[in-house]
Design brief:
Blueprint (H helix, E strand, L loop, with lengths): L13 E6 L5 H14 L4 E5 L5 H6 L9 E4 L2 E5 L2 H13 L9 H12 L3 H15 L5 E5 L3 H8 L1 H8 L3 H14 L5 E7 L3 H17 L4 E9 L6 H10 L5 H8 L3 H28 L6 E5 L7 H15 L1
Parallel strand pairs: 1-5, 1-6, 2-4, 2-5, 6-7, 7-8
Antiparallel strand pairs: 3-4
Helix pairs in contact: 1-13, 3-5, 5-8, 6-9, 7-8, 9-12
The chain binds adenosine-5'-diphosphate and magnesium ion.
Magnesium ion (MG) binds next to helix 1.
Amino acid sequence: MTAPTTTPLLQRQLLFVTGKGGTGKSTVAAALAELAAARGLRTLVCEMDAKGALANAFEVGELGFAPRELRPGLFAMVMNTEDSLREYLRLFVRIPLIGRLGPLAHTFDFVADAAPGVKEILAVGKLCYEVRERHYDLVVVDAEASGHIVAQIDAPRAIRELVHVGMVREQTEWMLAILADPARTGVVVVTTPEEMPVTETVELVRSVQQSTPVDVAAVVANRMLPRWFDGAEQEVFDLVASPAAEPALAELAGAKVTTVLQAARLASARRVGAEQHLARLREQLPAGMAVVEVPEMFSRSGGRRVVSLAGEALGRVL
Ligand SMILES: Nc1ncnc2c1ncn2[C@@H]1O[C@H](COP(=O)(O)OP(=O)(O)O)[C@@H](O)[C@H]1O
Ligand SMILES: [Mg+2]
């Protein structure tokens, strides 16, 4: 059996980065965008839930709907469905809207809250539009977490099924053509090598594959702990850390040796645990699914430093 040929991540045009909250979605989205820009791709990274995660990740001031060039070729924006609607009306319906939408905004809120998928399609539509117009080589989305991503990427199809005629249908067709094309669009699921995130990731991959036309491009196993010891070192560690050796060591180095040994055993056990969770992840994911490891970055500062280290790590495998 030959491995299925899939389009490499950075050769696609639209990547939705999702996963369980706190696993590193924003970090990975920012890192992928930074890597792509460093490779000469004109890249847009878009945060969907306006919590300021991208601004934190890049350590820049507040970001808005209008993309801002953070460094050559790297643009960042935050999604806002009201701005997206305004842009849509200006571009496609040719209603000039100066300043705020006024009463229409209230109508919009009313319609958007009442009809499922309206806000989602305005957000996804904006991203697809940037792809269609080729304003960027790559659009990376810091997307919704596991619970909401399917509704987000599947909005055009859900709406098409609801509305069978006219402009709405035409507008969903071109979006679907982009979203359903695995050469152009992919979902990247971020997880950490832990029990719950792995379980949630396996379920999420299944549900994206079963209920949306969007391809799952890769799973990122983030915050992988280093292998502390190799071969011969492991033997030395097993010997030193064995309970039998402890009295002799305590005699040599004092009672605190116990604390040091406990810390070392814990660190070692956590790496072993991470490997087991990673093994289960690979086993339970569909055959051939790419799993990309990103190491834990032991950085005190978080933010930009972690993003650029993660970008470098991704760059070694992508
Ligand atoms: N590989 C990593 N090494 C160290 N810290 C990380 C790594 N990935 C993410 N983090 C940190 O974990 C925290 C949560 O990451 P974030 O990307 O905001 O998660 P999410 O967007 O999934 O909620 C942040 O403080 C981030 O700096
Ligand atoms: Mg986030």
